[in-house]
Inverse folding.
């Protein structure tokens, strides 16, 4: 994961709020500008840029592109498989 809040000492409380907002609104990233993000998280553009640099990105656009790529890649990952349900329509439960 690109933004990992579990690293307690790495991020300030404000940065954690920005990360939390981003993780909860991944579906809105394409339209979310740095100004919009700052307004919605009650922070400044400078705070967001510091967060981006802290995570190894040159700025918000680079972070946003990687978050979108990660979101798209995760769409196709199956979290769990129910082996009691047949995979194909004509299979039995044992198959």
């Amino acid at each position: 994961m690109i933004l990992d809040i579990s690293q307690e000492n790495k991020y300030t409380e404000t940065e954690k709020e920005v990360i939390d907002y981003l993780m909860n609104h991944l579906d809105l990233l394409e339209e979310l500008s740095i100004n919009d993000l700052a307004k919605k998280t009650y922070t400044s553009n400078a705070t967001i840029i510091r967060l981006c640099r802290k995570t190894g990105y040159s700025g918000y656009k680079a972070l946003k592109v990687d978050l979108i790529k990660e979101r798209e890649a995760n769409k196709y990952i199956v979290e769990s498989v129910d082996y009691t349900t047949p995979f194909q329509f004509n299979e039995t439960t044992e198959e």
Observations:
- Helices lie at 13-24, 34-41, 45-54, 60-74.
